[in-house]
């Protein structure tokens, strides 16, 4: 029986040819008569363009996964694609027991996230087409990793746009409420069932290590959450202050500090904007500051407000830097581009009346690959600055 085929417009075909896997509803010339799943893709002249995920309820109706029109998307295909993704992460095994195994489009597997926490896997099936292949995916993960358990964190809002239920579901074995992560020698607890993202913020791993190696004197971790930056800062700083609006998050931060034998961490439950303003009014200074806010721009319409927020946060943090002090500032808002973020940092530096020296810029780590032809695969950007006063 012939496989269902989606016909894309010339604009859709041009987008695919340029290396972007998405086809929007407006660029679908002829819809396949098929439920969510895998379909062939062709242009209006009948030229085969490969295979794609088909999600009829989504605005992104097609997500191409291979240009090979002769491919068979079966268990063996999934095994091979997942194995290659895991092999890319092999160097991380020497420094951590937690990493992202699959980063969606970055690994040629759109709408799929797989994170590994020691013996356990946490997955996110973020499109109807991927959800339809759940059994194939879980079987391949079992074969490759033999995990003690697999948890689905399918509570992401994007699933609602695919016509899918939002829930958290145990798919295989057993997964504990907390898993100890060892990150370059620093230990902390991830919370697969209830934590942010899939249980922890794995994407800042290398930035935490980098800033920890530079830490000294008084250090400040703003938007600390469970204290991941603070734990690394404590390796070199005389004292570390962790600031977060969540008392529950700070309780976990204190527990993580105790797990590492750290007695120099103090936690402050406060709004970050208020804390930074009040600390400046008190004349406080810090030698190292980590500023890692949540995504302030959830969509294009919120970018202007987000830019104002980023500028205010960075300006206030810069005013707290001691001469020669270091500020690592980050944005995980996809809709705030790298040039936008650099402009915000530059404007904040100008208003701070301090000579802020650019020490470095960072992007995403090995396990969160950013494909240059797929801007949506990249979201994290960081800037390391030094206060040149002194």
Q: Write down the secondary-structure element order.
A: EHEEEEEHEEEHHEEEEHEHEHEHEHEHEE
Structural class: alpha/beta
> What would you say the CATH architecture of the largest domain is?
3-Layer(aba) Sandwich
| Mean pLDDT reading | 96
Number of helices: 10
Portion in strands: 25-35%
CATH topology of the largest domain: Rossmann fold
Largest sheet: 7 strands, mixed
**Rg (CA only):** 23 Å
| Overall number of strands | 20
Output the CATH class name of the largest domain: Alpha Beta
What characteristic shape results from the CA principal axes? globular
Helix content: 25-40%
Major β-sheet strand ordering: 16-15-14-17-18-20-19
**Low-confidence runs:** none
What secondary-structure arrangement, pairings included, does this model have?
Elements: E1 5-8, H1 10-17, E2 22-24, E3 28-30, E4 37-43, E5 48-54, E6 60-66, H2 75-88, E7 98-103, E8 112-117, E9 120-125, H3 128-132, H4 134-145, E10 149-154, E11 167-173, E12 179-183, E13 186-190, H5 205-214, E14 218-222, H6 228-233, E15 239-244, H7 247-259, E16 265-269, H8 272-281, E17 286-291, H9 303-319, E18 321-331, H10 338-352, E19 356-362, E20 381-387
Parallel strand pairs: 1-4, 9-10, 14-15, 14-17, 15-16, 17-18
Antiparallel strand pairs: 1-3, 2-6, 4-5, 5-6, 7-8, 8-9, 10-11, 12-13, 18-20, 19-20
């Amino acid at each position: 029986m012939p496989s269902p085929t989606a016909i894309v417009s010339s604009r859709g075909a041009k987008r695919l040819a340029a290396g972007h896997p998405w086809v929007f509803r407006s660029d679908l010339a002829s819809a396949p008569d098929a439920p969510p799943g895998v379909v062939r893709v062709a242009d209006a002249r009948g030229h085969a363009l490969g295979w794609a995920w088909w999600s009829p309820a989504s605005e992104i109706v097609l997500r191409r996964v291979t240009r090979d029109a002769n491919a068979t998307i079966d268990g063996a295909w999934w095994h091979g694609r997942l194995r290659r993704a895991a092999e890319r992460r092999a160097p991380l095994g020497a420094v951590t027991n937690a990493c992202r195994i699959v980063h969606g489009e970055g690994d040629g597997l759109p709408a799929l996230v797989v994170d590994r926490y020691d013996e356990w896997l946490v997955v996110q099936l973020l499109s109807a087409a991927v959800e339809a292949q759940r059994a194939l995916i879980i079987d391949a993960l079992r074969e490759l990793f033999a995990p003690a358990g697999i948890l689905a964190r399918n509570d992401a809002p994007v699933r609602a746009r695919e016509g899918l239920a939002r829930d958290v579901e145990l798919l295989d074995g057993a997964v504990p409420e907390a898993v100890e992560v060892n990150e370059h020698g620093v230990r902390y607890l991830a919370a697969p069932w209830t934590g942010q993202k899939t249980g922890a913020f794995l994407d800042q791993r290398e930035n935490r290590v980098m800033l920890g190696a530079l830490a000294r004197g008084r250090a400040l971790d703003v938007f600390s959450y469970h204290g991941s930056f603070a734990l690394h800062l404590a390796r070199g700083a005389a004292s570390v202050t962790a600031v977060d609006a969540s008392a529950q998050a700070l309780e976990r931060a204190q527990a993580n500090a105790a797990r590492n034998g750290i007695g120099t961490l103090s936690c402050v439950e406060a709004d970050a904007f208020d804390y930074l303003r009040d600390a400046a009014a008190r004349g406080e200074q810090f030698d190292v500051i980590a500023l890692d806010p949540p995504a302030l721009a959830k969509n294009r319409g919120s970018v202007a407000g987000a830019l104002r927020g980023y500028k205010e946060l960075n300006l206030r943090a810069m005013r707290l830097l001691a001469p020669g002090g270091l500020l690592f500032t980050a944005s995980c808002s996809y809709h705030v581009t790298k040039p936008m973020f650099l402009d915000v940092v530059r404007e904040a530096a100008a208003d701070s009346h301090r000579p802020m020296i650019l020490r470095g810029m960072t992007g995403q780590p090995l396990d969160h690959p950013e494909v240059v032809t797929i801007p949506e695969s990249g979201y994290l950007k960081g800037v390391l600055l030094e206060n040149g006063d002194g």
